[in-house]
From TrEMBL:
Identification of the protein by name: Phenylacetate-CoA ligase
Bilayer-crossing regions: none
InterPro entries in alphabetical order: ANL_N_sf (IPR042099)
Enzyme class, broadest EC rank: ligase
Domain of life (superkingdom): Bacteria
E.C. no: 6.2.1.30
Source species of the chain: Streptomyces syringium
GO molecular function, one term: phenylacetate-CoA ligase activity
Length: 422
């Protein structure tokens, strides 16, 4: 499937997608540069990208694969790919696996998750199948019992194991508890989460001859984002040119950043998707360019969302939970604070109340109600908590003056990621 010219993609989206037609209504008819276009507002995008009366798609949903992407259980989000778009997606990503270290004949275990419309397992399996080198694919899945996964890895002498850091660490911990190692594994391909130093130490104990590497940077909603750059820094990637255009924008002004080592939020334009156009779409991450042209370093999640262990959370998820539970309107502001201790991520919901509103018993009841609402909306969080992947969600009460703000604009910072990244 050919990569589309940006001008053709813009014109197609304006003419066939009601959402983009409205977004670009005030632009001149010949607007054909990214700098001419507004950045997509994620909330508006997903409010328009619904199952019924969809306003984002450029054609009826007649031929496509539908996947679930991040969102609350009450308002699920779906991403659509035509047959040709999906083939292009996995072919290009599969080529990038060579940069991650895939070699001819490698036996690769896919431990990503399948089913319930999630894409990661099928995406990695198809990317391996479309990679330009022969490989042996072992579609085990992340939900398989460790008691059967480990014998399969051993019997097939798997050389590469692919999964989220949480899954890989769960496997490593089980191996260590058994007093075992898997010395045949050469590569640990991780994706979907950041990998931290304490996790690397755990993985090294179970896989003594393996190197942990990013298998690439992509998401089911934003599409292709970054091809891994070989080297010691797993956060380094380069754009999948010409299939996607990655921009880094100033988080306060929206200015396009071109100089190295200036952090900003990642915005992507996909040049091979027409059914569900992705044009200047916020990927939800922060990054910075390096001195090598086209190379960028991922710095963590932007305020659109955050990853806590295997769980994706968005600031609007927390706000919705507060609104549902706080019927008296006592909460004056909120922030998501992510920390890491004892080898696990934890989420603190920092909530501000008015001066004088500090009755401990009442606030404790409200905190429990808010946590219940958020757990109901994001059931993967309590599931991950019970599995020991993340710390329990906690509420921290504060005054509005205690909430962190942007030093330049004075605007409230919705998500604070205090985890050290490696």
């Amino acid at each position: 499937m050919p990569v589309h010219q940006l001008s053709d993609l813009i014109r197609h989206a304006r003419h066939h997608s009601p959402f983009y037609a409205e977004l670009y209504a005030d632009l001149p008819p010949d607007a054909d540069r990214l700098a001419d276009l507004p950045v997509v507002d994620q909330s508006a995008f997903w409010q328009a990208n619904t199952l019924q009366n969809n306003r984002v798609l450029t054609a009826p949903l007649a031929e496509a694969t539908v996947f679930k992407t991040g969102g609350t259980s009450g308002a699920p989000k779906f991403s659509c790919y035509t047959r040709d778009e999906w083939r292009e997606f996995v072919t290009v990503f599969g080529q990038g696996l060579l940069e991650a270290g895939l070699r001819p004949g490698h036996r690769v275990a896919d431990l990503f998750y399948a089913g319930e419309l999630y894409a990661s397992f099928l995406f990695i399996l198809d990317s391996l199948a479309h990679a330009p080198v022969d490989n042996v694919r072992l579609p085990i899945g992340g939900g398989a019992p460790l008691e059967s996964t480990i014998p399969t890895l051993h019997d097939f002498a798997a050389q590469v194991v692919a999964g989220t850091p949480t899954t890989l660490c769960r496997l490593a911990e089980h191996l260590i508890s058994m007093g075992r190692q898997l010395p045949d594994v050469e590569l640990l391909f991780f994706g979907g989460e950041a990998l931290f130093d304490d996790q690397r130490r755990l993985l090294a104990a179970a896989f003594p001859n393996a190197e942990a590497r990013s298998l690439g940077y992509a998401s089911v909603d934003a599409g292709l984002l970054g091809c891994p750059v070989p080297g010691p820094d797993a956060r380094l990637h380069r754009a999948f040119t010409p299939h996607s255009v990655v921009e880094i924008l100033d988080e306060t002004t929206g200015e396009v950043i071109t100089e190295p080592y200036r952090p900003g939020r990642v915005v992507v334009t996909s040049l091979f998707r027409r059914l569900m156009p992705i044009i200047r779409y916020p990927a939800g991450d922060r990054a910075e360019w390096t001195e090598t042209e086209g190379h960028f370093r991922i710095l963590g999640r932007a305020e659109e969302g955050v990853r806590v262990g295997p769980v994706s959370l968005y600031s609007q998820d927390a706000q919705a939970a507060v609104t549902a539970a706080d019927t008296r309107g006592r909460v004056m502001g909120s922030q998501l604070v992510v920390r890491r201790w004892d080898g696990r991520d934890g989420l603190i919901l920092r909530l501000a109340t008015a001066p004088g509103d500090d009755d401990p018993a009442e606030l404790e009841v409200l905190a429990k109600e808010i946590i219940t609402e958020l757990y109901t909306a994001r059931p993967l969080y309590p599931d991950s908590e019970h599995a020991g992947f993340v710390h329990p969600l906690t509420v921290e009460w504060a005054r509005h003056r205690d909430l962190a703000v942007n030093s330049r604009s004075g605007k409230l910072v919705r998500v604070i990621d205090e985890r050290p990244t490696a």
